[in-house]
Amino acid sequence: MKAASLPPYLILGHPKNISVLIFVLLTIIGMTVASQGLSIYTLLIAEPAQPEIIRQPSQYQKAAINPANVALLFGRGQDPQTVQKNIPKTNLRLILKGAFANADDKLSSAIIEGSDRRTALYYVGDTLPGNAQLDKVHSDHIVISRNGVLETLYFPEAHGQSRFQAIEVNITQLPKAPIQPTQDSAFSRPEPTSLLPATPVKRKEEKAPIYTPSYDQSQIKQRMQELRERMRALENSSTGG
């Protein structure tokens, strides 16, 4: 009995089986190469990734702006002291007797005698005789404003009889007075008052009265004569006893 014949694809080493095997292997290799090539091509044409930039805070601080340097961009202004020197002297019949300059212009004041021989104390902003206004107080002169024009008033010459010594008052050295509020402002200041000569002014801390710089020569001579007569009377009484 003859053995039954097998199909060709079941026979090992059959030429048809070898051809099929080679075809399968070539197909697998081709697919692998195509896949690798596609991956490489994709990497080449893709845009490179941008690196992430992290901004660190600046270690340099901004330089401080000097207002003086900024002001120079618009030119250098005129010195205030130079401007004061160019102000003409006033022709008003006023006599400056005292000047109390303060760092705060509102607290500055001056003693001025008018053409009517009346002496009064004026603060900055007060109206002076002659329709002028006290604008600024310096240690040796004052600046007044008349019809919008600035004028200066200096002390009389040194040989004058009505000159007082100018005093600069520091606000930090003054005792603080109680403030009495008003309806118009938070504080009030005394109105200009006339300065009467030979008027005793009593202070609480001093027993003896204080007089202004004006004196009556006849009264002084009479007082001295009375003191001399008393001394002589005391000497005579002691000698006679």
TrEMBL record:
One matching Pfam family: T2SSC
Highest taxon listed in the record's lineage: Bacteria
Record localization: Cell inner membrane
Segments crossing the lipid bilayer: 20-46
GO cellular component term of the entry, any: plasma membrane
Segments for region (Disordered): 179-220
Domain Type II secretion system protein GspC N-terminal: 44-155
Protein name, as recorded: Type II secretion system protein GspC N-terminal domain-containing protein
Lineage of the organism: Bacteria, Pseudomonadati, Pseudomonadota, Gammaproteobacteria, Oceanospirillales
